[in-house]
Amino acid sequence: MPTSPQHPHTLHAFFGGTFDPIHYGHLRPVAALAEEVGLDKVTLLPNHVPPHRPQPEANAQQRLTMVELAIAGNPLFTVDDRELHRTTASYTIETFETIRKERGAAAPLAFIIGQDSLLSLHKWHRWQDLLHFCHLLVLARPGYNQQMDTPELQRWLEQHQIADATLLSRQPHGFIYLADTPLLEISATEIRQRRHQGISCDDLLPRPVQRYIELQGLYR
Fold first, then answer.
1. Fewer CB near the terminus (10 Å): N or C of the chain?
2. Domains of the chain
3. What tens digit of pLDDT does each residue of 166-189 get?
């Protein structure tokens, strides 16, 4: 089991993604997670060149603008554009090495991922180092397995998993928390396909983002 926690500090969480475009499937589960674990702030980290996925249709500036429009007026969210300034692939571990240096050794940091990302985490660059720098907060995703692919990976999960969210602010890193967040079947792929077909996306993403997409002529 994880080691005994120390005194609580403010937990700061980060949520990365291509955000091509950002939509309610990103925002609403993260807001529910914030309520569940007591987060005051979530920083969105738009990826520049995601190593495991096809390249974005919208460029870096367009995706950043859509994130800014989506979170305008919402005190929970901020955006950090550091990964958009990279000229190489965005590796989460390298970003968190930098963030840890900035925040100090004692600050509790967390990275929010989906259940799909947890199941494929062992394919990420230096994935086993990630818990040395942050906690993992896992959003439920529709249709994904609750068990890891191998007994070894399942043991790794169970060694780090906690059920008490208050522990997250008592240690700077090392825990995995599986959140009970809503299952929203919304994807950026679906939004892009709808746009290609001329179908409205108003129910899938904030109206300011939808207007920007229309003005920019994106996803046609």
1. N
2. 12-183 (3.40.50.620)
3. 999 999 999 999 999 988 889 999
